[in-house]
Amino acid sequence: MKKTHIIGLVVIAVALMIIISTAGDASTYVSFNEAHEMAEKGNNNKIHVVGKLKKDHNGNVINVETSPDNRSFRFALIDEHNNEQMVYHPNPMPTDFLRSEQVVVVGAYNDDRFVADKILLKCPSKYQEEGVNL
Prior knowledge:
Number of domains: 1
Structural class: alpha+beta
Order of helices and strands: HHEEEEEE
Number of helices: 2
CATH architecture: Beta Barrel
Largest sheet: 5 strands, mixed, barrel
Shape: elongated
């Protein structure tokens, strides 16, 4: 066998190992109910939950509690199936958190509470047209 064939096989083998190892770490998008069921079965993998912040009838975000030192906070998130869950985030509140349209939390249940390691925000675009006056 030629050296180029051996090098090619090694490169392919390394590429396959990388793909298989990253596929096992990939998280999925689920609801809070599904995430809770996964945790009860012993699956503590990081998962994504998509939702919206809880708001009052005036559109103001409610149920957000920051720690006294502002190093962590809790908030109510409503997932795509209208399940409400308090989410704990052990870091300071992200900029524009209260203005976000949609929130993705990445984390897992820990002792019947959802702990988010990461928070991804979808904020309203400042480039959206509000109306065109001619």
